[in-house]
Amino acid sequence: MKIIIDGYNLIWAAPELRKKVLKEVKGINLAEGRKALLHFLDLYQRGHPKLDITVVFDGKEEVFPFPSLHQRIKAFYTKGETADSLIKRIVEDEKKPQEILVVTSDKELKGRVKERGAQVIGSLNFFKRISPAKKRSPKGLSSRQENLIKEELKRTYKIE
Questions:
Q1: Is the pLDDT score of 21 beyond 50?
Q2: Closest Cα to residue 38, out of 9, 79, 12, 69?
Q3: Nearest CA to 34 among 79, 64, 69?
Q4: What is the pTM of this model?
Q5: Does the N-terminal or the C-terminal CB of the chain have fewer CB atoms within 10 Å?
Q6: In Å, what is the CA distance from 27 to each residue of 18, 32, 50, 58?
Q7: How far is CA 155 from CA 107, 149, 151, in A?
Q8: Ordered DSSP codes for 46-115
């Protein structure tokens, strides 16, 4: 399964990531948001090695240096086009778009990729599923709830 993520859309949708971007002293720091997102994705990828994850950011690569990423996580930069248009193009070029999960809360993008056969999940919902349970809830989740989430992830992403 391929997961294509609208990078900034996810960063702004998830409170934990948004906090990293909005610093009182320094103002907006997108690099911290990207770093935090990639950290969460790296942890998630290690637990789900069959997933092929691509994150798409608006902008030029040389402006956004990243430490080396896990080999199954790719970061794309749009270089003059929007992240939405690059994501649409990736889905359109895919031979099996039904095996792609697009992560975005952008209504227009959701509609376009669904037309091509891709699956879609909202950014905040996706982040809640990949972030560690102890960080999402001060009480934590029961083992039953953890198992339900794992089963849902298996069904959603068709992981064995």
A1: yes
A2: 69
A3: 64
A4: 0.75
A5: C
A6: 12, 11, 38, 19
A7: 24, 10, 6
A8: HH-TT-EEEEEESS-GGGS--PPPPTTEEEEE-TTS-HHHHHHHHHHH-S-GGGEEEE---HHHHHHHHH
Torsion of CA 67, 5, 99, 141, to 10 degrees: 90
Domain 2-157 adopts which CATH fold? Rossmann fold (3.40.50)
Average pLDDT over residues 85-96: 94
Place of tokens 């599923």: 129
What band does 39 get if pLDDT is binned at 50, 70 and 90?
confident
Long-range pairs for 113-122: beta carbons < 8 A, 24 or more residues apart? 113/87, 113/88, 116/88, 116/91, 116/92, 118/4, 118/91, 118/94, 121/156, 122/13
Buried b (16+ CB within 10 A) or exposed e, 29-65: ebebbbebbbebbeebbeebeebbbbbbbbbeeeeee
Question: Kind and range of the H or E element at 22?
Answer: strand 22-23
